[in-house]
Amino acid sequence: MIANKESIEKIKSKKGFICDMDGVIYHGNTLLPGVKEFVDWLKAEKKSFVFLTNASERTPKELQEKLGRLGIEVDHSHFYTSALATASFLANQRPLGSAYIIGDAGLINALYNVGYTMNNVNPDYVVVGESKSYSFDRIEHAVNLVLKGAKLIGTNPDITGPIENGITPATKALIAPIEMSTGREAYFIGKPNPLMMRIALKKIGMTREETIIIGDRMDTDIVAGIESEIDTALVLSGISDLTTMKSFAYHPKYVLNGIIDLVSEK
User: Fold this and answer.
1) How confident is the model at residue 27 (pLDDT cuts 50, 70, 90)?
2) Candidate list 20, 124, 221, 261, residue with the active-site label
């Protein structure tokens, strides 16, 4: 089941790499084994790569600085988040609109940069992403804005995310009270929405056939690759494991213990 040497060579022969971050590159503030060597290899082999994350809290610059603190130097242009994808989507749907945001700096800055204004009275959208400032008062206010006509948007459909000592609730869990209270279903922008995958391919300038997506979640990363016809590699260093993998109707092309499998001699 775990990729053998031949399979690993096929992965490494790809020209483009779309890599998830949480559970693949790090857990919280802990860098996972083999990641520094993997990034050095990407650079040395002149591979095209993007770190594509459903997390919406941080800007690309903040993600760059986080990796820098963990000992990895990567230009901010190699990062793309669900917050940026959400901002792009809303700017196309309703240019220069307004939103009530439950989210952190990455989401707020992304919407501001496409000309959106913050509005807690009569916004076009209620937008929810991961947030440390999540509270009952904000959820209550969001519920009533949606009932008054605001459209409900989630930056991503992740229910949980990995941290050093377990898991943390993510956007789909945080937005659930609003959906249940209003009877309205949110539209989610992040993986596995094909929008994210098309943007990622454009950023690295590669075709589907030249590219592989590496992720730790069957329900977002792997299905996103399958539905976009991009080869997939599941790492077992995050959310999904061999047991949970069997409960899905689809499967990844490759399975790795972690990124370290791509840089260690077998």
Assistant:
1) confident
2) 20
Q: What are phi and psi of 73, to 5 degrees?
A: -100, 115
Nearest to 207, CA basis, from 31, 29, 15: 15
Q: Is 22 assigned a catalytic role? A: yes
Query: Which of 82, 11, 87 has its CA nearest to residue 49?
Result: 11
* Whether residue 20 lies in the annotated active site: yes
Residues 127-169 pLDDT 10s: 999 998 899 999 999 999 999 999 999 999 999 877 777 888 9
Helices marked H in the chain: 5-12, 35-44, 60-69, 82-93, 105-113, 136-147, 171-182, 194-204, 223-227, 242-245
Q: Which CATH class for the 83-188 domain?
A: alpha beta
* Phi, psi angle pair for 120, to nearest 5°: -110, 15
- Percent of the chain whose predicted confidence (pLDDT) is above 70: 99
* Domain at 5-54+192-262: CATH architecture: 3-Layer(aba) Sandwich (3.40)
- The span from the CA of 94 to the CA of 132, in Å, is 28
